[in-house]
Amino acid sequence: MLIDGLLNQGNAPLLEQVAKFTARRHGLILENIANVSTPGYRQRDMSVDRFQGMLRDRVAARATAGPGAVSFADVDAAVENPAGGILFHDGNNRSMEHLASDMAKNAMFHNLAIELLRKQFQGLETALKDRGI
Description:
Layout: H1 2-9, H2 12-34, E1 45-46, H3 48-64, E2 79-80, H4 96-131
Antiparallel strand pairs: 1-2
Helix pairs in contact: 2-4
């Protein structure tokens, strides 16, 4: 009970959702790269802005609610087919430069979330060791 409360009150649930989002998005970007020369393939992605907006709304709701009243478990972004990019003669809307850039940004965002989550758990571990639990 104590551990569950410690894990769900801080930023751990938010960071967990960010890590899940970036891992899922990374898979989509890799799928887009693998199909870059597939005729008729349309790229799939998840909106970073929409996901961050959902997180912002949930953080604002959590600030006014009681401890543990607001959960991040149901925050999820839908997979969509972005209309941006040049549509080539084979029906593909590929751009290797854009995909490589998206992959690098997504990887950095994922690494940041994981590092922050690791630091938070490290702080909890230190606090529990100090108390002899």
